[in-house]
Amino acid sequence: MTEGTTSAAAEGADTLTRLEQEGEIAADYLEGLLDIADLDGDIDMDVEADRASVSIISDAGGRELQKLVGRDGEVLEALQELTRLAVHRETGDRSRLMLDIAGYRAQKRSELSELGAKAAAEARSSGEAVKLKPMTPFERKVVHDAVKAAGLRSESEGEEPERFVVVLPA
């Protein structure tokens, strides 16, 4: 192995270790939160797409965890930010950690991928740009990825919280 290969491998291992550390810190923080709220949930950690991913899942079908998701995922977004702040406080580094509760984000990702694919098909067949409703950064990212996978381009327009995706024809 060359020296460059060794350092690249070491850097990749360091990144994985850092992301695993973020997941551990987040899991500890969220376990404390679940205890305070007297909610049951299991915490699952992973590293996906160069970011730590933490999920709270429930054996009871996730009904009681819905409180932590809130309307349109608003509580989930707030908890994700608080968890990122907890990680930042411990590590000193800004975190891009993703939090999912009761499969909400996984379900939302599936719906948004379908929406992006449909919008791409509509833009392709009509030759017109397709504007979608305002979305959160997470939602826009999923739609952009689906449009790209369909072979078209998209861009975000507008200002938060009214920022939206525009799917461009070929």
UniProtKB/TrEMBL annotation:
<dbReference type="InterPro" id="IPR038008">
    <property type="entry name" value="Jag_KH"/>
</dbReference>
<dbReference type="InterPro" id="IPR015946">
    <property type="entry name" value="KH_dom-like_a/b"/>
</dbReference>
<dbReference type="GO" id="GO:0003723">
    <property type="term" value="F:RNA binding"/>
</dbReference>
<dbReference type="InterPro" id="IPR036867">
    <property type="entry name" value="R3H_dom_sf"/>
</dbReference>
<dbReference type="InterPro" id="IPR034079">
    <property type="entry name" value="R3H_KhpB"/>
</dbReference>
<dbReference type="InterPro" id="IPR039247">
    <property type="entry name" value="KhpB"/>
</dbReference>
<protein>
    <submittedName>
        <fullName>Single-stranded DNA-binding protein</fullName>
    </submittedName>
</protein>
<dbReference type="InterPro" id="IPR001374">
    <property type="entry name" value="R3H_dom"/>
</dbReference>
<keyword id="KW-0238">DNA-binding</keyword>
<dbReference type="Pfam" id="PF01424">
    <property type="entry name" value="R3H"/>
</dbReference>
<feature type="domain" description="R3H">
    <location>
        <begin position="106"/>
        <end position="170"/>
    </location>
</feature>
<dbReference type="GO" id="GO:0003677">
    <property type="term" value="F:DNA binding"/>
</dbReference>
